[in-house]
Design brief:
The complex is a heterodimer of chains A (478) and B (401). Chain A is built from 16 helices and 16 strands. In chain A, the strands form four sheets. A nine-stranded mixed beta sheet of chain A has the order 2-6-7-10-1-11-12-13-14. In chain A, strands 5-4-15 form a three-stranded antiparallel beta sheet, with no helix packed on it. A two-stranded antiparallel sheet of chain A has the order 3-16. Chain B has one domain: Amidase signature (AS) enzymes. Helices cover 38% and strands 14% of the residues of chain B. Chain B has an eleven-stranded mixed beta sheet, sandwiched between helices. The two termini of chain B are 22 Å apart. In chain B, 59% of the residues are buried. The chains are: A alpha+beta (478), B alpha/beta (401).
């Protein structure tokens, strides 16, 4: 009988933190910008600059640790890791080697085989390196230091994963939890979430680990899936058929060729000579700080979803859509608290807000409007004070400015007026000017009524209860 | 005999000389190395801004040994400075001595400032770690280095120290304003009543130095201060521990000088590895290269626990030993160097002589405790006890000159 094999996988996931500024200086940590726009003498490794820790980085490191059920090290230290590379301006990276911010966590994943807990070995904070830009035409390499010193956390799992499916579930779970806690946007395509895959293969049931290989800097979930499948097959082939000798090494995944390649030994060898950074004092996390972070943690998305369905009466589909993103949940909850209408609040976000986001080419995470104001707007519509078309105009304005919807409606003449004599005047004028539509309607063309209705509504600038207008219009032309 | 790398001929009023380890945006900073020859900083060191805002005039940049880790400046890429009799001179100390500046600001990591002041019969203070911002100084051994002040009188040292002491947000190791205020000249202090002589360290020095210690002892006793010898065997280990910590931190700090972004770049390269290796090989001097190799070795995976980690543990033991001594004494008296003068022949015979001389300067460097040189000898006190130490120094003006 052929031997059955199991794959043993551990992941190191790098996540860029959603801070405004870099980890040790006040430069912007935002993605993009012109090359070398977000730099200063500190993140360029100029002599004489000293690192000063950005406290928000520690906040987010702790938050990530708590979201993944880790123990938080109350005294956490930064250490220097030395190696030469042109994208590393000081020729060292400041990271956490001796006392990382969080240790011993778990992440629960759900796959076709059921639930499973993946153990987290540690989470440490560190700075990112810059980026090399190669120009083949001039055979020159340029360095862009914008990304240098952008804060990262590295989440190191135990080798508890055993398939591509589990790895994907794990990464998606991490992404969901960390986005929810606003630790990171976790955008693989922008490099704010990257992954090193450590993989070995052994006969099923064996407790001895096989030879491990590492694939670095994977930045797409589908590529990771393909790489794991390829690498697993390569290991089994080597063990069964002796096609090659497996060695512990770092490999590069080429997604276009669909193969992994050994990296030159030189790129991976070396002694990093870690030692405590004397310029960064140990960070001591007191009870007040710890408790403050603990209190700020969000509910897990599935807890919220459950609450939306059972307590607020939303459908599963709506609850699913909202809990995709913390931003949607926040706006929804604020709007609901204001207007008390869960279904309407969900609809406004899922249809109207999403439409505006799409038009602006923004993602759900970028929804940044005042939820309380949205609640007020929903109330205005429900109370018949503002018509639907005008309400959407008010919503557009809410994306631009922090407005009070009722005041804005008043100032812009969006308040519904059910002054029947005024409505009758408008109807009379429209009917007088469009006798053709009246005749069409009378001869049985229902559509003609809509044309007249639309003209009246336009004339009234939308500020009319549609029901009333319809009834008065029918009365006039019949 | 050129003492300056760059001299500011327009300096007037109260003039301060800067060791060429202190970054200035108006003058280049070479740190005594070919690597940084002509390097222009984009910003001033915090001490420079404090001094110029305080009405002081920068007299120029004084020559230093390469990265300031040698004995007296003899490894400078711009040449050693000697007197006619062949004895070595440290530039910043000499500029003050001959009256061209009121005081000199240095970076004391390997004891150079203190050593030079002792040999020149001057007053030098290496203040408590964290009380003077290191922002804008060329880093060597960040865990123990301090900005130092050298002058011919205690009053001048106090005046300048008052200007540069204080909290700085740009230095993560900078102490609070409240703590810094403890060592300003207007802070209350208790004059020293009992001083301990570090016996074995003193015994290891030459007779000329020992007799200086004796002379100082009798002056202090005449001033009603009790002076007695103590067992200092623990303190003498500071040398080896500091040589490890200093070299390791140095090796990491100078790794930024790689020929890629600024500084010297070799014309002889085709690959990035050649660019690094040849730039550094061609630009660094022998002592610095040795320090880098030694420091690298102490941090390697095989040696970290045996060397660097042990160095940290010894630091802790020495800090505790000092705390114990200060339960009974107000200061520790010890030499600042083994000899009263050094020649080029001394440093040629022993290229690593500065590492040996750390016997005298490392105890204050490794602990971050304040040290004051006066009367050609050195006093180490409790944290923030600068006023007590300078008060001792005031009794010694005229001694050891």
């Amino acid at each position: 009988m052929a031997t059955k094999y199991e794959t043993v996988i551990g992941l190191e996931v790098h996540i860029e933190l959603a801070t405004e500024s870099k980890i040790f200086c006040s430069c912007s940590a935002k993605f993009g910008g012109e090359q070398n726009d977000h730099v200063c003498p500190a993140c360029c490794g100029m002599p004489g600059m000293l690192p000063v820790v950005n406290k928000h980085v520690v906040d987010l490191g702790m938050t990530a640790g708590m979201m993944l059920n880790c123990d938080i090290n109350r005294v956490t230290t930064f250490d220097k890791k030395s190696y030469y590379y042109p994208d590393l301006p000081g020729s060292y990276q400041t990271t956490q080697w001796f006392s990382p911010v969080a240790v011993n966590g778990t992440v629960r994943i759900n796959t076709s085989k059921g639930e499973k807990d993946i153990r987290i070995k540690q989470i440490h904070m560190e700075e990112d390196a810059g980026k090399l830009v190669h120009d083949d035409w001039t055979n020159t390499t340029f360095v862009d230091f914008n990304r240098t010193s952008v804060p990262l956390i590295e989440i190191v799992s135990q080798p508890d994963l055993s398939s591509a499916e589990e790895v994907v579930a794990y990464l998606e779970r991490l992404r969901s939890l960390l986005r929810f806690a606003k630790v990171s946007e976790c955008r693989m395509e922008q490099g704010s979430m990257r992954c090193d895959v450590n993989l070995s293969v052994r006969p099923e049931g064996s407790n001895v680990l096989g030879v491990r290989t590492e694939m670095k800097n994977m930045n797409s979930i589908s590529a990771i899936e393909r790489a794991i499948e390829y690498e697993t097959a390569r290991h089994i082939d080597a063990i069964e058929n002796g096609t090659e000798e497996l060695v512990q090494e770092t490999r590069r995944w080429d997604d276009i060729k669909g193969k992994s390649f050994a990296m030159r030994n030189k790129e991976t060898a070396g002694d990093y000579r870690y030692f405590p950074d004397p310029n960064v004092m140990p960070v001591c996390i007191d009870d007040e700080w710890f408790d403050g972070i603990k209190a700020s943690l969000p509910e897990f998305p599935e807890v919220k979803k459950d609450k939306y369905i059972t307590e607020l009466g939303l459908g599963e589909y709506d609850a699913d859509l909202l809990t995709e993103s913390r931003a949607l949940c926040d706006v929804f909850e604020e709007a609901y608290a204001e207007c008390g209408m869960a279904k309407e609040a969900a609809n406004w976000i899922i249809s109207n807000c999403m439409k505006v986001l799409n038009r602006k080419q923004l993602t759900a995470d970028m929804l940044d409007i005042n939820g309380k104001a949205l609640g007020q707007l929903i109330k205005l519509v429900a109370d018949g004070k503002v018509g639907n078309a005008n309400a959407r105009k008010i919503l557009d304005e809410m994306f631009e400015n922090d407005i009070e919807p009722e005041k804005y409606a008043e100032e812009n003449g969006f308040i519904v007026s059910n002054d029947t004599s005024k409505i009758q005047d408008v109807i009379n004028a429209v009917v007088a000017a469009d006798q053709k539509s009246v005749a069409d309607f009378k001869s049985g063309k229902e559509k003609a009524l809509m044309a007249l209705f639309g003209k009246c509504m336009k004339e009234l600038k939308g500020n009319c209860d549609p029901q009333i207008l319809r009834e008065m219009l029918l009365k006039t032309i019949q | 005999m050129e003492l300056y790398i760059t001299k500011n001929e327009k300096a007037t009023g109260k003039i301060i000389a800067l060791d060429d380890m202190i970054l200035t945006k108006d003058y280049p900073t070479a740190a005594g190395s070919k690597m940084l020859d002509g390097y222009m900083s984009l910003f001033n060191a915090e001490v420079v801004d404090r001094l110029t805002n305080g009405g002081y005039s920068i007299g120029g940049k004084a020559k230093v040994g390469e990265l300031c880790i040698d004995l007296l400046g003899e490894t400078s890429y711009f040449g050693a400075i000697e007197r006619n009799d062949g004895t070595l001179i440290t530039a910043s100390s000499e500029i003050v001595k001959i009256g061209e500046a009121l005081a000199a600001i240095g970076l004391d990591a390997n004891g150079t400032s203190r050593r030079a002041a002792a040999l020149n019969g001057q007053i030098c203070v290496k203040p408590t770690y964290g009380t003077v911002s290191r922002f804008g100084t060329i880093s060597i051994a960040c865990s123990g280095e301090a900005v130092s002040v050298t002058a011919n009188t205690v009053d001048a040292v106090k005046e300048v120290l008052d200007v540069i002491v204080g909290h700085d947000d740009k230095d993560g190791t900078s102490l609070s304003e409240e703590k810094c205020a403890l060592l300003k000249s207007n802070a209350e202090f208790s004059p020293a009543k009992k001083i301990a002589i570090a016996k074995s360290i003193t015994d290891s020095a030459e007779d000329s130095v020992k007799s200086k210690i004796e002379e100082v002892k009798s002056v202090l006793e005449a001033n009603g201060i009790e002076v007695c010898e103590i067992d200092d065997s623990v303190l003498s280990v500071a040398k080896s521990a500091w040589n490890i910590l200093m070299s390791a931190e140095l090796c990491n700090n100078v790794s930024r000088y790689d020929g890629v972004k600024y500084g010297y770049r070799t014309p002889n390269y085709t690959t990035i590895d050649e660019l690094y290796t040849n730039s550094r090989t061609e630009a660094f001097g022998e002592l610095l290269k040795t320090a880098i190799l030694f420091g690298s070795e102490t941090l390697s995976t095989d040696n970290y626990m045996k060397m660097y980690d042990k160095g940290l543990r010894i630091r802790r033991i020495i800090v505790e030993k000092f705390a114990e001594i200060f339960e009974s004494f107000d200061a520790v008296l010890l030499p600042a160097s083994a000899k009263n003068a050094y020649t080029k022949a001394d440093t040629d015979a022993n290229k690593y002589i500065a590492y040996d001389e750390n016997l005298y300067t490392a105890p204050a460097s490794i602990t971050g405790l304040p040290a004051v040189v006066a009367g050609g000898v050195q006093f180490i006190g409790k944290a923030f006890s600068e006023n007590t130490l300078l008060d001792i120094a005031s009794k010694l003006e005229g001694v050891g000159k």
